């Protein structure tokens, strides 16, 4: 049995302590002194401020510390203490990539799936960056592009384009190729059909199914995806960046991908893979483990790390 205590309820964690039972019994049968009442009232005020912050994050988040201070009227020092308590008890989190404060997500419901994935990814990316030093992103496929949910670029000592493009092309990016390669055949076909209908030059390859099939087979055989050399989204200096990526798998289904980026002239792909591929795979597995399993999934091939097996749909 885990020794970690369960998170307190918002009321419990913001009161700061449970009022002793004996105090309640005494209060029931005699008048409470002003000193005793004052202590309780201070804690109720702390509760009121904490709930105000939680409500604001849930209604209007993500928000910066300055925005929270303006909206609540609470000074920044007090806000930081409230936010630290909420984060410790898994009721709030601070984004790695943008530094904004979010309300934490606890349930895997469809609208909150990306929020939950970003939430569980943040500490994993932090640890991976501390070890590899180079930054990583976590992304998912939506409507013809890869959307970056979380990143450790602000934490890396190396300057690898700190400006995050939250929509990345599928076929030239390492994360896009990883998600495509480890998707179920029917999902892959849907993605390629969507890409082929778009006018972007980065999506033209989707209409050449034989070339795509070779790209996918090479990726599966290698056990990880690589970024197309020279690819960039909006800033030309992005073309100097290389990346490898592996899928985040849930019952064999690629629900996202995690990458590792570096400046191409600094290290070769072979050196990066030799030094950090297993770290990257462990990070992806740790993220996947923290995500609740879907109720049903489609079949897909998992040949990550050279193994080939079929994952059948389960109810």
Outline the secondary-structure elements.
Layout: H1 10-15, H2 21-29, H3 34-60, H4 65-72, H5 76-88, E1 92-94, E2 101-103, H6 113-132, E3 137-142, E4 145-151, E5 167-168, H7 174-181, H8 185-196, H9 209-222, E6 225-226, E7 241-250, E8 253-263, H10 269-290, E9 300-302, E10 309-311
Helix pairs in contact: 3-5, 6-10, 7-9
Tell me briefly what this model is:
By secondary structure, the chain is an alpha+beta fold.
Oligomer: single chain
The number of distinct β-strands equals 10
Instruction: For the largest sheet, list the strands in their spatial order.
Output: 5-4-3-8-7-6
Provide the β-strand percentage band.
15-25%
What is the straight-line distance between the termini?
28 Å
Morphology:
elongated
Any idea what the radius of gyration is? 24 Å
The secondary-structure class comes to alpha+beta
Helical stretch count?
Answer: 10
Region (Disordered): 294-315
Domain IclR-ED: 104-293
InterPro entries: GAF-like_dom_sf, HTH_MetabolicPath_Reg, Tscrpt_reg_IclR_C, Tscrpt_reg_IclR_N, WH-like_DNA-bd_sf, WH_DNA-bd_sf
Keywords: DNA-binding, Transcription, Transcription regulation
């Amino acid at each position: 049995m885990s020794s970690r205590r369960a998170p307190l309820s918002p009321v419990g964690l913001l009161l700061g302590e449970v009022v002793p039972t004996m105090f309640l019994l005494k209060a029931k049968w005699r008048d409470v002194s002003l000193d005793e009442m004052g202590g309780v009232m201070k804690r109720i005020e702390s509760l009121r401020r904490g709930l105000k912050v939680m409500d604001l994050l849930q209604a209007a988040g993500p928000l910066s510390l300055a925005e929270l201070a303006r909206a609540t009227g609470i000074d920044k020092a007090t806000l930081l203490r409230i936010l630290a308590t909420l984060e410790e008890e898994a009721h709030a989190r601070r984004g790695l990539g943008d530094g904004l404060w979010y309300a934490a997500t606890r349930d895997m419901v469809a609208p909150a799936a990306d929020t939950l994935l970003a939430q569980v990814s943040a500490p994993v990316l932090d640890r991976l960056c501390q070890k590899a030093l180079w930054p990583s992103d976590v992304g998912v496929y939506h409507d013809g592009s890869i959307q970056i949910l979380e990143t450790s670029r602000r934490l890396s000592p190396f300057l690898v384009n700190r400006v995050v493009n939250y929509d990345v092309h599928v076929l030239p990016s390492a994360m896009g190729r990883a998600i495509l390669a480890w998707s179920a055949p029917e999902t892959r076909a849907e993605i390629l059909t969507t890409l082929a209908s778009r006018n972007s030059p980065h999506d033209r390859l989707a209409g050449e199914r034989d070339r795509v099939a070779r790209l996918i087979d090479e990726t599966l055989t290698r056990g990880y995806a690589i970024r197309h050399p020279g690819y960039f989204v909006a800033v030309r200096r992005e073309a100097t960046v290389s990346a490898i990526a592996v899928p985040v798998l849930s019952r064999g289904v690629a629900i996202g991908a995690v990458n590792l980026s570096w400046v191409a002239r600094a290290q070769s792909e072979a050196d990066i893979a030799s030094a950090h591929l297993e770290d990257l795979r462990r990070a992806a597995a740790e993220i996947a483990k923290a995500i609740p399993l879907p109720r049903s999934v489609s079949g897909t091939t998992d040949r990550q790390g050279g193994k080939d097996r079929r994952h059948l749909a389960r109810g």
